[in-house]
Amino acid sequence: MQLEDIFFARFADLTPDGSFTVVGGGLNRINAGGFPWSWGLLFLLARVRFATEEAQAPHTTAIERETPLGQLEALGEESAMQPVPPTAALGPDGRVGVNFNFCLVNLCFPEAGIYKYRFKIDGQAIGVAELLVAGPSQGESGR
């Protein structure tokens, strides 16, 4: 398996045909008004390419967050990946592309810094998206 892309968005919707709609894609910074700071909804999207044999095998997925101080936090439970239909279309590289969409709800940021979100398949990290949570500067307000 090979990670093709991983990024944050304000909203994302995946369709059964493998396409997706994204609003606010590429979000990588939140300006906080103070700490602790909370954020209602954040979407993490990943696209992974599987060889056909890999796509047919059972897999589990999970998201883990690393705080600026290095603390690791599991976000939700590890879950079983739905099997890829044997009729799934192959891409030009002969692999099956699978999109993942994780809705992260009511995130709490206790301090400023870089938060790393790791996407794991079968317990192994295959991609990381980084989010800078910046504190208020003089003359700025949080958004």
Fold and architecture overview:
The protein has 143 residues and is mostly beta strands. The protein has a single domain, classed as Immunoglobulin-like (Sandwich). Helices cover 3% and strands 58% of the residues. Strands 4-10-9-6-7 form a 5-stranded mixed sheet, with no helix packed on it. A 3-stranded antiparallel sheet has the order 1-5-8. Strands 2-3 form a two-stranded antiparallel ribbon. It is elongated, with a radius of gyration of 17 Å.
Uncertain segments are none
User: What's the CATH architecture?
Assistant: Sandwich
Shape summary? elongated
CATH topology call:
Immunoglobulin-like
Biggest sheet: strand arrangement = 4-10-9-6-7
Mean pLDDT: 90
Strand/helix succession: EEEEEHEEEEE
Count of individual beta strands: 10
Concise description?
By secondary structure, the protein is mainly beta.
Write the layout of secondary structure elements.
Elements: E1 2-9, E2 11-14, E3 20-23, E4 29-31, E5 37-50, H1 52-56, E6 60-66, E7 72-80, E8 96-109, E9 113-121, E10 124-134
